[in-house]
TrEMBL record:
This is ABC transporter ATP-binding protein. Keywords: ATP-binding, Membrane, Nucleotide-binding, Transmembrane, Transmembrane helix. Residues 29-293 form the ABC transmembrane type-1 domain. Residues 342-573 form the ABC transporter domain. It comes from Micromonospora fluostatini. It is found in: Cell membrane. It is a multi-pass membrane protein. Gene3D superfamilies: ABC transporter type 1, transmembrane domain, P-loop containing nucleotide triphosphate hydrolases. The lineage of its organism: Bacteria, Bacillati, Actinomycetota, Actinomycetes, Micromonosporales.
Length: 577
């Protein structure tokens, strides 16, 4: 009855997790069936008890009434046990489905959609929040069924004596109001608690990433304090949650005790007046417990409020609309013949309302190599992401051989644009799998050639099984990892290659050798290189000098070095042209 009118319950029903309860399939249906069976059996118990008591008062003996009572108790135990088993299966199925959708949505959102969340926060949402929310789904079934049982208890009271039903309805109103208040406050306080948890998880993940730096600088104490800084706010939010439940619980208990006394008092008067029998009075006292059942679900409802708060954090990801994919180009292959001319026109990218790139115009002629140079925070990595279609600009347009990137199917775009990053992550089972990642069926000869061009072949040959060595058995330095990232980009192929500071961990000699190999070995392919070293800038065809999110000049490195002191200051002190 009143349970279904609770706003928090309606919101949980409307959330993505509740919409996915259908994905639990048979296990959740079985859970609901056993729950209904258990409630139905429980509703029959007071009538069986009343029949046995009345037969005892009449002196005829319990007889079949006692046998029926024993059978009902056994059926209740069986229904509860079976319900617990099916509930566990339902939670497992819902959780798997939710996490599957969560991961798919993260990939669909891309860099632009996920950069607003810290990695640790996303991990907390994927693990703890999804699990807590999924456990709320069977609880929702329990609340609905128990709410129906409360209606059944109220109907039974009315059938025994309509004065009992009227008394119950009058006295239950304050309890309903208190329960609504508790749900609303618990959900709000627990939402704050989860946000502080996510903040701690994000800080902890950052610390794990920079653990070597922390050890080297002996800043463990400071980092511990930074990670745990939200802990007092977390503890206060937890205390507030329990305080709300505690404050309302005693008020609720007081109201319920008064209601029980009132209803049973009316029942006692009815016995004295002869309107009901002693057995009916006993049945009424038992049915009163059923009618109050949804109030005694306060702990379950509080758990649902917790589940709703967790579901809200999951929904923040699932409800983010992914970028709309551009339509496929009808031309064969998706792109006209070309060597990878890249054009950026009026490209603007904002983050938190501030421009990272501000109306950038840049042309990279087909088959040439252009380096993007600038101070830290100038927008170099953002420009590299936009140039290859990993990040869509807020304004402006990017074209590859005259075709807007937005007009290309994702499969075409990823086939024609290769990336190498400053901190590559190797994915796959073996080194060969990692180098051919995204290009199944790549020949071993192509993998070997790419490794040779990236100056990675020598150390790969020293591995126990060469390129077939499992990644788990390959300890790599930063430079070796970057060379494998470059080799993977070379295996990828395509008409445009974007290197985002992909040689920063190489020593000067190796970097010069790799840069020369990329220049000569990739003739006819366009290369956009984010560079921090003079040696790299000096070997490319032109340098795009990015300053404060804008292109300040585009010219050969030697010309910029000779004309602009600010350009020379971009590089480390002591560098020479």
């Amino acid at each position: 009855m009143a349970v279904t009118g609770f706003a928090p319950l309606r919101r949980l029903t409307g959330s993505s997790l509740a919409r996915m309860t259908v994905t639990a399939g048979p296990p959740l249906a079985v859970t609901a069936a056993w729950t209904v069976a258990g409630v139905a059996v429980t509703l029959l118990l007071p009538a069986a008890v009343a029949a046995a008591v009345d037969r005892a008062f009449a002196g005829t003996g319990p007889g079949l009434a006692f046998a029926a009572l024993v059978a009902l108790v056994a059926a209740k135990v069986l229904a509860e046990a079976a319900g617990l088993v099916s509930q566990a299966r339902a939670v497992t199925r819902v959780l798997a489905r939710v996490r599957h959708l969560f991961v798919r949505r993260l990939f669909a959102l891309g860099i632009a959609g996920t950069r607003r969340h810290d990695d640790g926060d996303l991990l907390a949402r994927f693990t703890g929040n999804t699990a807590a929310a999924a456990h709320g789904v069977p609880s929702l079934v329990t609340v609905v069924v128990e709410g129906a049982a409360s209606v059944g208890g109220l109907v039974a009271l009315c059938l025994i004596d309509w004065w009992l039903g009227v008394t119950f309805l009058v006295g239950i109103a304050p309890a309903v109001l208190l329960l609504r208040l508790m749900m609303r406050r618990v959900r709000s306080r627990y939402g704050d608690y989860l946000r502080h948890q996510g903040d701690i998880a994000a800080r902890f993940t950052d610390a794990l990433t920079g653990s070597r730096t922390i050890q080297a600088s002996r800043t463990q104490r400071r980092e511990t304090e930074r990670i745990l800084a939200p802990l007092p706010a977390l503890a206060e939010a937890g205390r507030q949650t329990w305080r709300v439940q505690g404050d309302i619980s005693w008020q609720l208990d007081l109201v319920l005790a008064g209601l029980r006394v009132l209803v049973l008092g009316v029942g006692g008067v009815a016995v004295v007046q002869g309107r009901i029998t002693p057995g009916q009075f006993l049945a009424a006292s038992l049915y009163l417990g059923f009618a109050l059942g949804f109030i005694y679900l306060s702990d379950t409802l509080a758990f649902l409020a917790h589940a709703q708060a967790n579901a809200g954090r999951v929904d923040e990801i699932l409800d983010q609309p992914p970028p709309q994919p551009g339509p496929s180009v009808p031309a064969a292959g998706g792109l006209p013949a070309g060597a990878g001319r890249l054009d950026l026109r009026g490209v603007t990218v904002r983050h938190d309302g501030h421009p990272v790139l501000d109306h950038v115009d840049l042309t990279v002629p087909a088959g040439t190599t252009v380096a993007v140079v600038g101070r830290s925070g100038a927008g170099k990595s953002t420009l590299a992401l936009v140039a290859g279609g990993l990040l869509r600009p807020d304004e402006g347009e990017v074209r590859l051989d005259g075709v807007p990137l937005d007009a290309l199917a994702a499969t075409v775009l990823r086939r024609e644009v290769g990336y190498a990053f400053d901190r590559p992550v190797l994915l796959g089972t073996t080194v060969a799998d990692a180098l051919a990642y995204g290009r199944p069926g790549t020949s071993g000869a192509r993998v070997q050639e790419a490794a040779r061009t990236a100056s990675a072949l020598d150390f790969l040959r020293r591995l126990p099984d060469g390129v077939d060595t499992p990644l788990a058995r390959v300890p790599l330095s930063g430079g070796e990892l970057q060379r494998l990232g470059l080799a993977r980009a070379l295996v990828h192929g395509g008409r445009l290659m974007i290197l985002d500071d992909a040689t920063s961990s190489l020593d000067t000699v190796t970097e010069a050798r790799v840069t020369a190999a990329l220049t000569t070995g990739l003739a006819g392919r366009t290369r956009l290189v984010v560079a921090h070293r003079v040696a790299t800038a000096a070997q490319v065809d032109a340098v795009a000098w990015l300053d404060g999110g804008r292109i300040r000049a585009v010219a050969p490195h030697r010309d910029l070095w000779a004309r602009y002191p600010d350009y020379r200051a971009v590089f480390t002190a002591g560098s020479t042209p």
